[in-house]
Amino acid sequence: MLHETPASPPSSKAATGPLSHIKILDLSRVLAGPWASQLLGDLGADVIKIERPQVGDETRHWGPPYLADGNGAPTADAAYFLCANRNKRSLTVDITKREGQAIVRQLAAQSDVVLENFKVGGLAAYGLDYAGLKKINPKLVYCSITGFGQDGPYADRAGYDFLIQGMGGMMSVTGRADGEAGAGPQKVGVALVDVLSGMYATVAVLSALAHRDLGGYRARDGQHIDLALLDVQVACLANQAMNYLVTGKVPGRLGNGHPNIVPYQDFPTADGDMLLAIGNDGQFARFCEIAERREWITDARFSTNGARVKHRAVLIPLLRQTTVMKTTAEWIVLLESAAVACGPINDLAAVFTDAQVIHSGLRFDMPHDSGSQAPQVANPINLSATPVNYRTAPPKLGQHTDAVLAELGYDAQTIVRLRSAGVV
Known about the structure:
By secondary structure, the protein is an alpha/beta fold. It has two domains: 23-235 and 378-420, 3-Layer(aba) Sandwich (Rossmann fold), CATH 3.40.50.10540; 264-346, formyl-coa transferase, domain 3. The chain is built from 17 helices and 13 strands. The protein has helices at residues 32-42, 79-82, 98-110, 130-136, 161-167, 192-213, 229-235, 238-247, 281-290, 295-298, 305-310, 312-323, 328-337, 348-351, 355-359, 401-408, 412-420, and strands at residues 23-26, 46-51, 66-68, 74-78, 88-92, 113-116, 141-146, 224-228, 264-269, 272-277, 342-343, 363-367, 373-377. The strands form four sheets. The protein has a six-stranded parallel β-sheet with strand order 5-2-1-6-7-8, sandwiched between helices. A three-stranded antiparallel β-sheet has the order 9-10-11, covered by helices on one side. A two-stranded antiparallel sheet has the order 3-4. A hairpin with a 5-residue loop joins strand 12 (363-367) and strand 13 (373-377). The longest helix has 22 residues, at 192-213.
């Protein structure tokens, strides 16, 4: 039965961020939606993550590797899951059951935001779509993340990051150029479309909340956000999209080269490789002085960026013959002293031992319910008055089910019955 006891605090460590007054009902899974809800959680929002009983978010099982418990044995949670699910409370609910739907509706009635990434129309059958939940909470901001949007010829298709990178043009401009060894389209090494979609979703949610609350006491209603992975991918083609739209010429793959700036890519050194990112003609002239190639400064083929882009096929081999004469460390010392941008190509071991990364605290640990420490990568947002805060590690499946149901007024006997019936 339900009873009317006051809701208990969401966690022993209170949220203090700019969104500490916001409650998020997170029906999403995998990466795009969870990336958004983790970001909102870092900013202080109380995020309740709805997961399927016994199964949970698919990424819990996307391993190995898996987080080790306090005894060094693998837990049930993959490292993939840990990247996008801190500062959340896990509640297992079977939304195909009527009592499960009732639980979600109760939570929606108390929430500010719903995040979901079901197929178009997938939640309508349960009355958990925007139209259904708006009736019980008109001020709800409801964000739907799909592969192709709520309408259009592809609306019913499932969308995956890999497919969207291909369909949306990213892979056509990523990879070695035709004619080179290993040439061909290449995806980005992380699920970048999902990550970018999570960031766009966060911006959209915050914008909708600002609009809703702009009227102060007479706050406006919420709204529905339709966010498509394909739309995000195309929007993020940035200068490559403009290069095509301005010229009508389809950009090709340039490996690590840049379509509009030369030199701006990797170069071999005496002991490995380095990146050289020369953004203007002054930097190029200073590079030529240090490299003892002063004749390039006045060479009409190389003296301006436009000329260097036109004659890249001539200049790049000459540069490669020059950069191999010194080690990466030697080049970095010389070029940095002349304000010419350059740097190493780090693997992840080097990244997390880099002096600036350590200084910025980008890697930290959170106590996990398994008895071990869950490694985390810090949120890059640094707010002077309302900093992000890390309250809880990514939760075990259903870790907060009893607590959240108790906040809704369910007594212990009812929770036992719901669990026996497979509702939670």
